[in-house]
Amino acid sequence: MLCGLKRGLYRNSKSKTIDSFVIIFKIFTQEVPMTFFKTNWNKFFIVLISIFVLLLAFSFALDIHAKTLIDKAFTQAVIVFGSAKALNAVISLAQGTELDLPFVTVAVGQILDPINDLVEQFSLIMLASMTSLGIQKILMGFVTNSFYNCLLAFNLIVLNIWLFIRFKNDENARSFFFKITIILVFLRFAIPLIGYVNEVAYEYFVKPQYNIEQLNSSIVSVKDEVSKVTNETITKKEEQSFFSKVSEKFDSNYYTKKIEEYKSAADNSSEYMVDLIIVFVFQTILLPLVFLIVLYAFVKGIFSIGRNKEIK
């Protein structure tokens, strides 16, 4: 009987031990992970965001088309700049075209002087636009570089490890590292997005009223018309006989006609150039300035986080 009692106690203790292991197993496989996840859901969310950022960064999904858009805008600016310089050269040649009145020589091409001044100012603006687009191309190359991507990956990995593993008195270092990583992520995708913002703004809001291709074609047409009038004037002057030149000196209608030809050739050219100035200032100067302001506000906001509170 005593042996039976011992065996019963042994079975009961063994059963309790097994039950204890089952309870512990359930705690670690069900209750602990769920509790841990609920407590640290924000950290797991950051982990998922980090994985998505790395996949997007190393796949270059945004960058390829963004580079194409910036290259297209740069090429467009170069073409318009070339058209402006060609018009400037043609007008300068026309300004040197002289017709002889009695006792005085008149340079009829001087009627184009105000337009030439506008062309020179327009050329400077186009040069500034090309500089802005060139800087955007450099920045694109920088943030899509392998070194930058590896630096971004390193920072994200360290940051995610730091979310779960803490060190003694690491609040300030952790907060600073977090801010630097966020800025790296912002720059990595904000600069390519400039190309998309420019394209969307131009296609849907600017192009219906200010079409760069059409305006540039109009500038080229003005250049061709001015060049045509100048060449006709020079050719006729060279082919005229002595008596024709003498009689022409006293024909005021001839000078009026030439002035009108130049006016007609340069008609609306000022409007075309002002429209192009509006487009390129908006695309290549205003929008990048807005980006710099947003970047400044973003960096300032990031570094003001946790100034009075610790990141836990």
Describe the 3D structure.
The structure is a single chain. The chain is mainly α and 312 residues long. It has one domain (39-304). Helix content is 84%, strand content 2%. It has ten helices and two strands; from the N terminus they run H-H-H-E-E-H-H-H-H-H-H-H. It has helices at residues 2-39, 41-59, 63-95, 113-143, 146-164, 171-206, 212-239, 242-249, 252-265, 269-304, and strands spanning 99-101, 104-106. It has a two-stranded antiparallel ribbon with strand order 1-2. Helix 3 (63-95) packs across helix 6. 19% of the residues are buried. Mean pLDDT is 78; it is low at 1-11, 20-28 and 308-312.
For this entry, give a set of tags.
single chain; 312 residues; mainly alpha; two-stranded antiparallel ribbon; 10 helices; 2 strands; disordered C terminus
Short synopsis of the structure:
The chain has 312 residues and is an all-alpha fold.
Strand content: under 5%
The helix content is: over 70%
**End-to-end distance:** 63 Å
Number of helices: 10
Largest pleated sheet: 2 strands, antiparallel
Order of helices and strands: HHHEEHHHHHHH
Q: Rounded to an integer, what's the Rg over CA atoms?
A: 37 Å
General form = rod-shaped
Count structural domains: 1
Count of β-strands: 2
Low-confidence stretches: 1-11, 20-28, 308-312
Structural class: mainly alpha
What is the overall pLDDT average?
78
Could you give the order of strands across the largest sheet? Answer: 1-2
